[in-house]
Design brief:
The chain contains 15 helices and 13 strands. It is flat, with a radius of gyration of 29 Å. 39% of the residues are buried.
Length: 454
């Protein structure tokens, strides 16, 4: 509970690979615990935002546990707005675990996941969107995702949401004043109210459009390489990822399951799925692989429909196209080192890339084609300043529906009391996004996603 002192390892610990390990302590006893455990030689001042050099010792036996640095950050000038100390120890499991155990024995308790950030929120250091951005920044898988998370941490999402909520509060105050003091105030300016509501609704809808783009930045673009057997799908995966993730032979049907590889293309994380060749087969194992390939294609953000240049467009490609045509798609003509590609259907509808996977040809063109789809918005992950997550999108949708209901109430000439019902719903939803109006269960769900030391 807030008010006691918490401690946790605040750095990733990899045996034999980490040079520094950090134990963070926050709360009213943080400095007292540091005095019990840390010995600083000479006349080093124990002042806020100072780094002390010394040793961590067992408080009873005085046995040295580690040579370390101690960072002091006194309230309110810390992340949690509480007294915070950090022991910067040697990396590895043993030193930091020993220091953490001493902190707990000295009066701290082990922090819950995300509890440091939760305290920063509860103490008014950050709002809820900024807290979620902390988790997004830690988990960012690309520079663009990190930049969007950083924008959220700087309040670029919170500020417009707070302004929209304040506008709704102002409208509600105007309406309730007419309900309570109808005889003492001039009539409500209904056209002005309509205009303000429409402006709020328009901005809400604009922010909602960032949800899909933000999800792609956070989770990456899922790209499925599909086609009939032996067109070079596995070779394309290996050439693209510069590895031998997929087995390549001359025998059709070698790939029996979905093989994954992760890349970064232009700052966007890309998850490549090499699927089993899609065809009718009596082989039970291959049938399972084909079924999984169809499922992977349905769940992918982008399809690479791969053809063999020596075979051209056949009835098999037409059948596969029938199942994937609803998805964003790039036509990949492979094996161009063996044959000049014939004209194929749908070239005027989709990007076409010519490759020779066995000779590492066409990979750059393929990546550029994907980036073009992103930059033109067809995959919705480009030119982002802010991007809402799934929780924020769901809550913002509630606000949108409530605002639309207010408009309908006004159009139906219903009494002012009815206006206030949906206005309050919109205000509540907007407040839930920033944390101005949020339940404990929502906070528990959000912060359970964090690592313990954050």
């Amino acid at each position: 509970m807030q008010g006691d002192t918490i401690a946790a390892i605040a750095s990733a610990i990899v045996p034999n690979q980490g040079s520094i390990g950090i134990v963070r302590v926050s709360g009213p006893e943080a400095v007292s615990i540091a005095h019990k455990l840390f010995s600083a030689p000479g006349q080093q001042p124990w002042e806020s935002h100072r780094i002390l050099y010394g040793t961590v010792r067992h408080p009873q036996t005085q046995a040295q546990v580690d040579e370390a640095l101690l960072l002091l950050m006194l309230a309110p000038r810390s992340f949690t707005k509480e007294d915070v100390v950090e022991f910067h120890c040697h990396g590895g499991m043993i030193p930091v675990q020993q220091v953490l155990q001493l902190c707990i024995e000295a009066g701290a308790r082990l922090a819950q996941p995300g509890e440091f950030t939760l305290r920063a929120f509860l103490n008014g250091r950050i709002d809820l969107t900024q807290a979620e951005s902390v988790a997004d920044l830690v988990g960012a898988r690309s520079p663009q995702a990190a930049q969007v998370a950083l924008s959220g941490l700087q309040g670029k999402l919170a500020k417009p949401i707070q302004q929209l909520r304040q506008t709704c509060l102002d409208i509600l105050a105007e309406v309730e004043a007419r309900i309570d003091f109808e005889d003492d105030l001039p009539p409500l300016d209904e056209p002005q109210i309509r205009q303000e509501l429409q402006e709020v609704l328009t901005q809400v809808e604009q922010i909602l459009t960032t949800a899909d783009r933000g999800e792609l930045l956070r989770s990456g673009v899922k790209v499925a390489i599909v086609g009939q057997p032996n067109v070079g799908k596995s070779s394309l995966l290996n050439a693209w990822s510069r590895s031998d993730r997929a087995i390549v032979t001359e025998l059709p049907g070698t790939t029996r399951d979905v093989v994954e590889s992760n890349l970064n293309v232009g700052g966007i994380p890309i998850q490549i799925l090499d699927t089993a060749g899609i065809r009718d087969t009596s082989d039970t194992v291959e049938q399972i692989g084909v079924a999984r390939s169809r499922q992977a294609a349905q769940n992918a953000d982008l399809i690479l429909l791969t053809l063999d240049a020596t075979q051209g467009w056949t009835a098999a490609e037409a059948e596969i196209y029938h199942h994937v045509q609803q998805r964003p798609l790039i036509l990949v003509i492979n094996k161009i080192d063996l044959a000049a590609p014939d004209s194929i259907p749908y070239q005027d509808q989709y990007p076409v890339v010519y490759t020779s996977a066995s000779h590492q040809q066409g990979i750059d063109q393929l990546e550029n084609a994907i980036l073009d789809l992103l930059n033109t918005g067809q995959l919705n992950a480009a030119n982002l300043d802010i991007a809402i997550n799934q929780r924020q999108a769901a809550t913002l949708t509630q606000a949108k529906l409530a605002l639309e209901q207010v408009q309908e109430t006004i159009n139906n000439n219903l009494p002012l009391d009815f206006w206030t019902i949906d206005l309050r719903s919109a205000i509540h939803a907007l407040g839930t996004i920033t944390g101005e109006d949020v339940t404990e269960s929502v906070l528990d769900k959000i912060f359970s996603r964090f690592c313990i030391g954050k």
